[in-house]
Amino acid sequence: MKLNLRAKAEPEVNMTSLIDVVLLLLIFFMVSTSFVKQSQISIRLPEADSSTVTDDPPRKIDIMITEQGTYLVNNRELVNNRPETIRNALQTVSDGDASLPLTISADANARHQHVVTAMDVAGKLGFTRISIATVNDPTE
C-alpha cells in the first residue's frame, strides 16, 4: 500500500482582518478626541498703571453707635440722636456724594433701633454701599 504523502502546506496568517480592525479603532479614537474640549475660564488680570499714583486714602464715612445711643460720624459726636441731625451730618461729610462707602458699627449693647435709624437715614439719602461692621470676640 502506497500512501501519497502530500507536502505540508505552511499555515498562513491572514493579517487583513487585523489591519482593518486596527485602522477602524484608529479612526474612531481620532474622531472621538476631536469632540473633547477642555473647559476654559477667561480671566482678565488687572494691569498696573504707574502714571496715576495717589497718596490720598479713599473717602469713606463711618457711623459709630455707642451703648447709650450716641452717634459718631467720622469720630465726631453728634449733638443728639434725631434722624434730622444724622441726615445733616451725613450730607455735610459726604458733600452730597452718595456713592461713598458707608460703614455702620455699633456697640454690642446698643439698641437695634439706633442701627436701623442710621440705615434708614442713609438709604433715604441715596447711599447704596452700606456695610455693617462686626468685631470678633477676643475671648473666643
Overview features:
140 residues; 31% helix; 5 strands; 3 helices; Nucleotidyltransferase, domain 5
Structure overview:
The protein has 140 residues and is α/β, with parallel strands linked by helices. The chain has a domain at 61-132: Nucleotidyltransferase, domain 5. It contains 3 helices and 5 strands, in the order H-E-E-E-H-E-H-E. The chain has helices at residues 16-33, 83-94, 112-124; strands at residues 61-65, 71-73, 76-77, 102-106, 130-132. Strands 3-2-1-4-5 form a 5-stranded mixed beta sheet, covered by helices on one side. Strand 1 (61-65) and strand 2 (71-73) form a beta hairpin. Helix 2 crosses helix 3. The longest helix has 18 residues, at 16-33. The termini are far apart. The model has no long low-confidence stretch (mean pLDDT 82).
Structural class from helices and strands?
alpha/beta
Uncertain runs with pLDDT below 50, 5 residues or more? none
What's the β-strand tally?
5
What is the H-and-E element order? HEEEHEHE
Helix and strand layout, with pairings?
Elements: H1 16-33, E1 61-65, E2 71-73, E3 76-77, H2 83-94, E4 102-106, H3 112-124, E5 130-132
Parallel strand pairs: 1-4, 4-5
Antiparallel strand pairs: 1-2, 2-3
